[in-house]
Amino acid sequence: MDTPSAFGAPIDHAFFERSPSEVAPDLLGRVLASTSGGVLTAGAIVEAEAYLGADDPGSHASTKGVTKRNVVMYGPPGTVYVYFTYGNHHMVNLVCGPQGEAGAVLIRALEPVEGIEAMARRRSGRPLRELANGPGKLAEALGIDLSDNGSLLNVGRLSLFEGEPTSSDRIDLSGRIGLSAGHELLLRYYDSESAFLSSGRPGPLRPKRRAQRGTSR
Length: 217
Known about the structure:
The protein has 217 residues and is an alpha+beta fold. Helix content is 11%, strand content 24%. The chain contains three helices and eight strands; from the N terminus they run αβββββααβββ.
């Protein structure tokens, strides 16, 4: 399937041979594209979070070693790491750093640029600003699922293109979103002028409210 030349050239896997904290801000403005279902959909990255190795309490690598879940994080740079969470959301990450050392960047939000009608169908007709303004939303909009886990960018259904890198004066950072530990680390990078950022707020994961006993329904 042909890719619009406006996306620029594909990004080489060597781009990811760095720490996730270096790669994450450099991803802003790059175009993530999918050919899921034989339909080209794509968006410019406007928000990304870095996840490090065993010393990062918010990372899936913060375990006693390699597990069935996190093994992809130790793979070659440029590998796609997809996991399923909260019972209904897929999250897409891009593996960074030397092979054998865990690290990845979670793509948190995109500005849709291609295949918007298909993205809207997958997102049940949501308005443009809500098609990909969150990690689970963008995975749904691009048709990303566990079949993409462990694939290589520019080889499988997902590709990354140069796009128009976000200028440094527009890049801001904060703590991460939706974590019970490691949320305070300043590893979330985002385009401060984008209207397509996720709606979550940095800080500790809020506990689910339990129904009070003895109350009528």
